[in-house]
From TrEMBL:
Coiled coil: none annotated. It comes from Naganishia liquefaciens. Residues 188-202 have a biased composition (Basic and acidic residues). GO terms for molecular function: (3R)-hydroxyacyl-[acyl-carrier-protein] dehydratase activity. One of its GO terms (cellular component) is mitochondrion. InterPro entries: HotDog_dom_sf, Mitochondrial_HTD2. Residues 188-212 are annotated as: Disordered. This is Acyl-CoA dehydrogenase.
Amino acid sequence: MLIKHARAGLLQTLRRQLYARQLSSSPEPALQAWIQQMTSAPPKTTTDLIDLERAQQLCRVLPTRTGKSQVLPEWGTALGKGHHLAYFWPKNENEQLGEDGSSRDYNAPAPYSRRMWAGGSFEWPVTDPTTQEPQGLLVGSSMTEQTSVPKIEAKAGMVFVHQLKEYKAMGGRASLLKEIRMHVFRPSLERNPTKDAKEPKPTKKAPSLPQEPFDISFTYTPNLPLLFRFSALTFNAHRIHYDATWARDREGHASSPHGGPVVHGPLSALLCIELVEQWTQASSRGRGKTMRKFEYRATSPMYVDRETRIYGQSLEGSGKMRLWVMQDGKVGMTAIAYLM
């Protein structure tokens, strides 16, 4: 028995050493060459029609609008802030997707296969500099999305990819919306079938109470139908959002009682934007203000079937609102909305 355990321990040690060598042997020059290739590549341009069906369906899906007598978008009306996420789908065929189901267009090379949406920003210019007309994405209009990669950072065993997206009217020159998307890529996990077979123990749910004053709040519980419908509307096949086994065993999401699935980062950001927009329409302190920029950062994964609370605090005199999203006592996202 002792010999058997000793052999098992030796095999485990050898496997870890081999895995460490594989990571360290990933040629740094190759990674640098990929970074140079991505950051020097010309922007990619795609087009899409801001059709009415997706605009209305997204409104029906968002928890911030559920059960409320909302006015759905119509042809010619402005698309909600952040609702462009339901458009400009990736153009990959199934065989071109990564093993995790994600589009590989901007994914880091091996061994950095674990992808998470780390943060980003949205910026809405005040007026068209050429016509001085208010800007916005209109339902029924044809738009272009121009994507470039201005920056990629490799640090602490992770790769951070920054995408810059500019949205314009078809044939137009002025940006109606500028977006930064940042994804973080981590090395793949060491495969251990014995360990993977173990089910994670349920964790105790801690209350998601705010630690400081707030002006607005919203509580909801993300469920699988919500994640499925948001994935469908954004044409996102990333398996961490619907495959609990993959999320747990291949991505390391064992914090949830079921090891996943993981709530979309952009869904949490969009709900924060929705909350700010509702505050500017309903609150005497916010009425008349317009959000011009929104910055957010994912700080901890959030999971399905766990109560989630969003809080917002108006920073008087600064034209800003600070937001944070909590689940099980942890802050999963922080954000700043810039108002004027």
